[in-house]
Amino acid sequence: MLNRIKTIIRQRRWKLYTAPYQLNIVGVRSPITSANQFDDLITVFYRDEKGKWRFHAYPATTDPGLPYLHVPIHNMGAAILAMGQYTDKYMIDRHRGRYYALCQRGGPVTVVRDYNRDSTLDYNNGERMTGNFGINIHRALATGETPTVERYSAGCQVFKNADDFNKFMRLCETHKKLHGNVFTYSLVDFRALRRANRRKWLLRGGLLGGAALVTLLAISTINND
Question: What pTM does this model have?
């Protein structure tokens, strides 16, 4: 998985951090569109002091829970973070004033507003909005595992397991000591990538089809002369 994620980062010309213990934090969104499950991943990878890559993957959600899909906070719908790299947008701070997490303090991010109030995550049909929405990276329950997302995410990126989150925050503290209290979060959405690849192949197929038609017309013209 690490090699695939690094390939996507390079293909999209996103930043890949290679200094020792400078974290690459990448959410991986599942293709599943039914809501309320911790069916995504938050991955963290970095080079150690010997230059070796270290990789961790934690069950999480990158989507809002059912309560916020049905009754969103914003009148345009629930916030679903859009695929992209959000450079230097995060820092260690208190999530809702309660405990330390990675909080969106460094500038705007882009979300898709799921406005139809059903139980299906609509990544493409809503309006895209960019702003300071408080899309933080935090945990669900303070201990153990949380079975379903529910009200733990209104669009935030949320860890399923409290121990995983604590390990993640220890890595963030190491990063902070060496590289400052500024973090980049990237989100890879495999559904979006598949759609982009389909469009590319359809376009390529259309271009090839057009070229073939021109060739046939040229041959026909030559034969009729």
Answer: 0.85
